[in-house]
Amino acid sequence: MPGHVTIDAVAGGTGPRDQLSVPTGSMQSAVLVGKVGERLADRWQAESSLLGSMCAHALVPSGKLFRPILLLESAMAVGGDADVVLPAAIGAECGHVASLVHDDIIDNDDLRRGKPSVQYKFGADNAIVAGDALIFDLFAALAECRTTGAQPDRIVAALDVVARCGIDLCRGQSLEAEIRERMDFDLDAYLTMVKLKTAALFKGACECGALLAGGEDHMVRALGEYAENLGCAFQIHDDVMSYTVDTDVMGKSDTSDIRNGRLTLPVILAYWESDPDGRQAITEVLVDDGDPIVRRDTLMEILERTGAITAAAQRAVQYSRDAIDALRALPPSPSVDRLRGFAQAAIDRDR
Amino acid sequence: MPGHVTIDAVAGGTGPRDQLSVPTGSMQSAVLVGKVGERLADRWQAESSLLGSMCAHALVPSGKLFRPILLLESAMAVGGDADVVLPAAIGAECGHVASLVHDDIIDNDDLRRGKPSVQYKFGADNAIVAGDALIFDLFAALAECRTTGAQPDRIVAALDVVARCGIDLCRGQSLEAEIRERMDFDLDAYLTMVKLKTAALFKGACECGALLAGGEDHMVRALGEYAENLGCAFQIHDDVMSYTVDTDVMGKSDTSDIRNGRLTLPVILAYWESDPDGRQAITEVLVDDGDPIVRRDTLMEILERTGAITAAAQRAVQYSRDAIDALRALPPSPSVDRLRGFAQAAIDRDR
């Protein structure tokens, strides 16, 4: 779709609520995104093994390629050439898809992007190996940047950033499990988890693109700050939307968070706004295994009474503003305009 | 233990049969191995999170550090400085341990290195994330070589090699599942699987060390060839030992391969040496779910009758010789002597 890209928001997102369409503002961007999609489709297609089948199944048809887009736009925002960083953009999607493949095992999700998940189609054991292969492929793709003109010292700097962001992603996933396990309503722990789980890969993509393209230190830092705030805005808006999206549009009440016992920002804010009885009601709704629709209705009543949904939405807005502010350190360019657009779109989805 | 290192053979090996002790021939090697162990112990110890606990549990106490040793000796064999490649050696162990953590989920193994496996202690879902973090940490460690004096273009070349070897490892794991699933006695498929699953990380370690240390192309290739043959010798000798090691020494009959339906080289060779009745007997033993001791005894009788154990052992000897031959391309040095010793020790274990 030249002139527009539709982007999905966060790891794990598949529903319509995770998508948004923002103008790319240029044919060049659309062409680049098309290239990334084609290369991803080719990457494992020729390998007729079980591993090849699994990786191709996971990568194709591709999602909205938001992390590759962030990487490419960041490279251009620092004055670099998108073709130089193209392999790394492909790698960013491999890394993201790897996390989805493993997430689907952990969450026992059978569907991904409208078709059977890797774990459902090939079994959890095989899916573990497929996810691992895609993590390695992220780094294989990064190494390919030496054939497109990136400087070796920049590739090594990007390697450092990407590896550390990958570890942060794991820290976030593990912290999420801890929070769920001990039913922890601590706000700081939640915000740290979002920063690690969702924002880390955004940050890795932006910093990687900027580094490979030869960006100056202050530009790399600015794009990292932008991405971290963007990631938090996205995730929190996603949290909010799980309570505000019209169930008629979604086709059904969204009860997945309830069923998974996942703590969202609105729930955490409502908890701290509630009296002891309210807190107990929230806890019961989450640990209960009764009808999720009934539990959701109870929770909605508390969320509305405490104003927690609005309070959470305001935090998403603030993160979006902070993301946009961070871009001020960069010289004006169409890419910076588009990055700014993403930060706005992050909190405008489905409203 | 200065002057000696005890090395474990293959991914998945925990029993006494997987260990061998070869003279290091120098204090320097022993000191280096000690350094790797210390750094590994420090690496995740300070992180009090669930992820930190899991990674520290998996890495400490360390195994025999054979992949780090291969990497360090390869660097010295091409005339390089071991301290320059030390972070990569640490990374090699992180990558190896990552594969063990995920293998233990796949094989549902509760014990690893004499203590509870990560999946047993922390659950499979958390163990997936821990393994992922250790893969990322392999690459974070590789990037650290820029602080020890490695050239950026060499780090990028090593990145390429390590990422591709990691993908090969996954290909091997996935192929092993395919072979088991369709009960495939194809010899070529088995040998390909061994080359990918066991030899790939050996190859990655040796080539990575040689590349980072500034080795010439022909030296890097020679060490890669050495490592690939070494890995095959190790794995096949391991296969053979599962039928030849004294059960009194092991404390029990080794029936894990039988229970897991795993095809080993002796079984495959016996299959092709057998008449239709013998082939059916082999197949039945593997798919049967009766007493593993009885099944093992039946299988042993067939293996002995067909001479398959001896034939498999001869192949291991040939791989060991090929590994030693590959070292001829390198200038004589104490490191080359030690690498040669590893190839000999690979087929001399527990005889």
TrEMBL record, chains A, B:
Biological-process GO terms, alphabetical: isoprenoid biosynthetic process
Pfam family, one: polyprenyl_synt
Alphabetical keyword list: Magnesium, Metal-binding, Transferase
Domain of life: Bacteria
Cofactor requirements of the protein: Mg(2+)
Entry's Gene Ontology molecular function annotations: metal ion binding; prenyltransferase activity
Keyword DNA damage attached: no
Keyword Iron: no
PANTHER family: ALL TRANS-POLYPRENYL-DIPHOSPHATE SYNTHASE PDSS1, GERANYLGERANYL PYROPHOSPHATE SYNTHASE
Family per similarity comment: Belongs to the FPP/GGPP synthase family.
Name of protein: Geranylgeranyl diphosphate synthase, type I
Species the sequence originates in: Kibdelosporangium aridum
